[in-house]
Every structure is written in structure tokens, then in C-alpha cells.
Amino acid sequence: MSGMDIAGLEREVRTRLQNEKFLMVLDDVWYVQDLKIIKNLLPVTNAKGKVIITTREEKVGTSAGRRKPYKLREFTKEESWELLQLEVFEDLDECPEELEDIGKEIAKNCDGLPLTVVVIGGILVSLDAKTRPGVTKFDEWTEVSKDVLRFLQKDKEKLISEVVALSYYILPDELKECLVYMGVFPEDYDIPAWILIRLWIAEGLIEQKKDESLEETAEEYLNDLVNRNLLMVSKTNPMGENKICGVHDVIHAFCISKAEEQNLFEEIKPSDKGIFPTPTAAAKKYHRVCFNSKLDTFFDSQGTEYPRVRSFLSFYKDPVKLGKEYNTSIPDNFKLLRVLNSNTIICDVFPPTIDELTHLRYVTLFVDVLTAIPESISKLRNLQTFRVDTNSTTPIEMKANLWAMLWLRHFKTKATLVLGKQKEGEGGKNLQTLSTLSADSCTETVAKKASNMKELRVRGNLTTLLDGKDNFLRKLICLEKLKLMHVRLGIRFPKTNCFPPNLKRLTLRNTWLEWSDMSILAQIEKLQVLKLKQNAFTGKKWTVSCKFSTLQYLLIAGANLEDWEVNSADHFPRLTCLSIKKCGNLQKIPMELAKKLQKLDIESLSESATASARAIQEEKKIIDQGEQKTRWSSQFQISIN
């Protein structure tokens, strides 16, 4: 359906909904006109279909249908107090006795608004993390109670805004900048944590701390904002680390207002008549510009440069195509860029003049047909992050000299990167991420120059890489995350461990190893996450005979495994998360894994394997009852698709 126009998509939606039983949830609808467009797609005669709409605008609710909208009630003071305890103490009945009365007063003063309770909870948690001489926790809570009471005299929308402001003003200065920066993203935008952290770094919002990398400090900032309930996390990785995040629309509006006060950025968009504003104002005031509208129209209507602009940011929800005639438009109009986030703008070819932007620290591109990274990119001596997406499936040549870019920290592409004849250079020591490297390019030079690398992805014939003779992987002593994709017939591991000594996360795909080779992976001392995808291992039976001492997450997907034997829970003493997908021949999941397991995710398994998953669920209920877990404790989760 990706190739359909709007009219075709509308017809497809109508056809699919006409006779099907469905439940459609439309969350946070703001405008009546948007609702009308959606209503035109819904079948009139299908009584089996139901639609739920949530909105804060009463006009939207009343125009939705003949039924009166259901208005959510506000929290009672008891419910507010319960939520506040969960936010601050992560459980009920954990509040110290001397704080109970003032805590209940704070909860009552939140006026039954859950968002207010959550944000105030974040403030109280942050107060716990720091102490002021001569000030008790009771005194600090009393101050917060007075602030909330003062805000209560205003209307509810204003109350929430004031509470967000209160949380903002007690932030350290470095966190204030990072929070306000969230306004550059569109509302309700899913923000990859990896991208956000690198943008903060490139924008100069992260200060170097002793004995910490910039990425580690930025991740601390991100976690701090999440703990204060100012950022929301919508997706985590298997280790519980933040993967996708965003901000509540109320907090987003606050960030926008603060950004306007500070002239932080300008969103370039046309008027209702399709006319773009003259560039004079933005050229004089703003260092950052955001684009979420038609770029070709903008470039056609403008005839001037933006000499003050340092960041060009585009966050289209769907990629947009930029014609060949505009290939040099961004470098021509924004000559002093440090940040170019344009991976949602599809260029036909690699922008030929991008090497003129010598101040660039951060670049993301989408090049439709990509055959090589040009040599001229070597001129970007200040570059820290370079990511290029492409539709090309053939390997691309790295003509640029990787070792000439002294400050390069992250180089990412999903295409296979073949390193050409690299010239000499002092670069490489700052490189942390290299993806996706051709197996033939895993040379002694790479291991020596990029010895501090933490993340590597390799595609190609892995036979030489894994035979243990040149010890390429063992030489990468800082490597923590490794993804290997084989493109030939099956391989075999050497009898001894050939993997990096500090490896924590390993993904294998199409390696066609035998299950007996799992004993080599068990020798990786710090391995926490293991993902076996699409024939990573082959064979009908796996009898576990070794101990995976540190493994916490295991994924098996696309394997022909039938019989999986685990004789003792001691083989997986720390396994908390198990995911098994598209293993239709597997007869059952070993019950011995149940003891430590907290999450089980299965997809496309046989009836008997699915039944064994439910048996594990019942066993976990008995285990949890024996441990007397409260309803707020971490409970076993199971997902069956």
C-alpha cells in the first residue's frame, strides 16, 4: 500500500472496514475537520465496527456522533494520593509517616488532574536526589505544597502549565536546555533515543564530564528527564533502556513557548495561502530552523542565504522526495550549518556540495540510489555523527578517508560499506559506532585505529572473520554490541572463544551454525543479550549442556528447532526475558526457564509450544504467590501472537 495515492488509500480503508468486525481508537483528536475526514472513511452500514475517540475539545466530542460524549471524571483525593505514592515511592504504604499528611495535602491540591500529580511526583523525586544544608524533606515538600496551592487559583489548563513551569525552574541549567530543545520535534513525534542523544551532543548541549563519554552524560540527562516525568518513554530495548521517547502535548506546548522566549528555533511553514514568510526575520534571529512542509516550494520562493542558521532540522512523518534540481539547495542556502538532520528527505543522488559545509558535526541523509560515499566527505573534519539511509541493496564503496575525520564518533548505514584504499590519518580513536561494514573490510588497520569502538555491524562472508586465525574481533577490547549477518553457506566457530572480551550484546543472522556451537557463545563472559535470527542456528534438537551465566535476554527467530532440552534452571540463572518467533516446529518451551523469567513473548508457534507457554504462566503465578508479591511489584508478562 506504500505506493498508493490518497484516493487509493481511502478506497482500500473503506473496502477493508465494510464487512469486518473492528475496533478503531483515535487518540487525542484536536480538530472537528480532522474528525470529518476520518468519518467519511467509515462504513455506515457495518454495525460490527466500533470507534472510540479521545479528545480534550468538547466540540470534537459532540460532533463525533449522536451519543453524548463521556466526560472523564477527575481523580478523588484518595486516588490522587495513591498515584502520588506510586510516582514517588514506586509502591503504596512506603511513604514515611512524617510526610504522609503533607503528601496528602499536595495530592489534594493537584485538583484531581492525573498529569499534575505525575509532574509533581517527578519534582518530589528530584528533591530526594539532592539535599540542602539545614532543609529537611518535610520543609521541601511544604514548599511544593504551597506552590501547587498558589497555582490552584487559576483555571485547570493554566494549572497544568504552571506545574510544568515549576518542574522546569528547579531543573539544573543543562537539563533546562535539553528539555526546551524537545520543542523542535513535531507534536506526538516518536523520537529515537539514539538520535536525540546525538543531536544534543552536536548542538553543544552536553558538557564533557571527567571519566564519562558525551554519550554517557547525555543518556544520564535523558534518564533524569524521564524520572522527572518530563519525557515519556514509549519503547524500551530488552535491557529496559530507553529506545523511543517523546513529550506530552502540554509539556511540548511549554517547550515551544520557552523556545520562543529564547529565540531557540523557528518552524518554517507557509501561510494558509501557501506563501512562505520572507527569510529576513529567521536569518536575523534564529540559529535553528525546522521544516515540516514542502521544501521545493520554499526553495523556489526564497532567494537569500541564512547566514546565522546553524541547524537544519526536518522531521517528516513520511519521507518526502526532493527533485534533482534541489540537490545543492541546502548547502547553498545554509552555508554555516553544524547540524543537518534530513534523513526524511529523499535525494536522488548524494548531495554534491555538502562537503562545503565544513562546520558540520551531525549529518543524516537519505540517498535513493547510493553507490559510494564520495572522497570529498573527508573534508568534514568536525563531523561527529554521519548516518546515510538508502534504498540501494548493493554494497557501497567508502571513497572518503575514514581516518581523516578526527572527531567522527558514529558512522551508520544499513547498506554494506566496503572500505576503499584508505589513506593514512590520525582518526579512528573517537569512533564508537561503525555500521554496516563489509566482512572483507574487517582488517588489521580497522582493529588498530578503531580500537575504542563500542558498536559494530558486519555483513558478508563471515568465514574468515570467525575462524579465529587473525583474531580481529578479539582485538576490539571495548566492543559491547556486535551484529553479524552471513551471506554464504553455513560456518563453524573455532573451538575457542573468538569474540571480544567485553561483548554484552550479540546478534547473529543467517550463520547456519549447529546448536552444539552454542557452547562457544556461553564462553562470552559478559554476554547479556543474544539474538538468533533467521537460521542463525540450524538443527532439530538443542540440548543445553553449558551455563549462560550473565544472559538476561534471549531471542530465537526463524529456526527449524523442534526439541529444546534444558535439564536445569542453573543453565540460565539470570534469564529474565525470552522471545521465540516463527519457530513453527518447536514442540515446547522448557519449564526449567520459568524460575527467573519475567517476560515471555511468542509468535507463530505450534499449539503444543503455545500450551507450554501458558503452563509457564501458571507456574509463575504459583512462584509469585510463594514470594508474596504485591500487586505493584514487577509481574510476569506474557505476549502470544
- β-strand percent reads 15-25%
What is the average of the pLDDT values? 86
Amino- and carboxy-terminal Cα gap: 23 Å
Share of residues in helices = 25-40%
* Radius of gyration (Å): 28 Å
Structure description:
This protein is α/β, with parallel strands linked by helices. 30% of the residues lie in helices and 20% in strands. The protein contains 18 helices and 28 strands. The strands form five sheets. It has a 19-stranded parallel β-sheet that branches. Strands 3-5-4 form a three-stranded antiparallel β-sheet. β4 and β5 form a beta hairpin. It is globular, with a radius of gyration of 28 Å.
How do you describe this structure in short?
The chain is α/β, with parallel strands linked by helices and 641 residues long. It is 30% helix and 20% strand. The protein has 18 helices and 28 strands.
Name the descriptors.
single chain; 19-stranded parallel sheet; three-stranded antiparallel sheet; 28 strands; 30% helix; globular
Write the layout of secondary structure elements.
Layout: H1 6-18, E1 22-26, H2 32-39, E2 49-53, H3 58-62, H4 77-89, H5 97-109, H6 114-128, H7 137-151, H8 156-169, H9 173-180, E3 191-192, H10 193-202, H11 214-227, E4 232-236, E5 242-246, H12 249-262, E6 266-268, H13 280-285, E7 288-291, H14 295-301, E8 311-314, E9 320-322, H15 329-333, E10 339-347, E11 362-367, E12 372-373, E13 385-390, E14 396-398, E15 410-419, E16 433-438, H16 444-449, E17 455-460, E18 481-486, E19 505-509, E20 513-514, H17 518-521, E21 529-533, E22 537-538, E23 541-544, E24 553-557, E25 563-566, E26 577-581, E27 599-603, H18 607-626, E28 637-640
Parallel strand pairs: 1-2, 6-7, 7-8, 8-10, 9-10, 10-11, 11-13, 12-14, 13-15, 14-15, 15-16, 16-17, 17-18, 18-19, 19-21, 20-22, 21-24, 23-25, 24-26, 26-27, 27-28
Antiparallel strand pairs: 3-5, 4-5
Helix pairs in contact: 4-5, 4-6, 5-7, 6-7, 6-8, 9-11, 10-11
